[in-house]
Amino acid sequence: MSLILSIDTSTTVCSVALHRDGTLAACYELFTEKSSSGMLTTLIQHTVQHSGHQLSELDAIAVAKGPGSYTGLRIGVSTAKGLCFALDKPLLAINTLEAMVWQVNGFYPASYTLCPMLDARRMEVYCAVYNTEGHEIQPTSAQIIDEGSFADLLTQQPVVFFGNGAAKCQAVLSHQPNAIFSEQTVHPSARTVGQLAAVAYEQGQFEDVANFEPYYLKDFVGTKPKKLVV
Length: 230
What we know:
The strands form two sheets. The chain has a five-stranded mixed sheet, with helices on both faces. It is α/β, with parallel strands linked by helices. It has six helices and ten strands, in the order βββαβαβαβββαβαβα.
């Protein structure tokens, strides 16, 4: 038996879910153009209370560890770690891209491969490649997309690209007959983070709460402040 609270703030979509033994019990998702992580605490309270539980009843806290938005990941992981310390609960961390794959599993033939993509500015994306059973084929990486990207895979089998990084790649890769771009909008979600977290919980795949850091994948690059005109 497990009761797991899951958090995903990898993008501007902020989501919280509660799973009992891997089955979704409650979920709140907030879609905004800007980061909605400031509402995270409120979403956690609503999710737990409306499911008829209390925070003290949780068995573990799960968080999407990245890749994704630097600020979003930092807020999500900090909140998850704070709950773990306050409630004395273990921490589970799930790859954001892997959780996205579980949103589209079952929609495509077994001969296809799945490539979740998150926008990383300009023509760069965070991506990975999985088969339809959720097993990793190519590891998570940051890639600059051009006409030769994924050529080795696309000559062998259909590849489904999805996520908020896929749309900007469509014009570059659509010349490939095996390149398929999902019409379904797929955002990272605590719903599938919780599914994978339930498996990780049973396998005892807990993180070191004190030392755990988000999977940023690459260093944060801030923008230079604009000069003040007087």
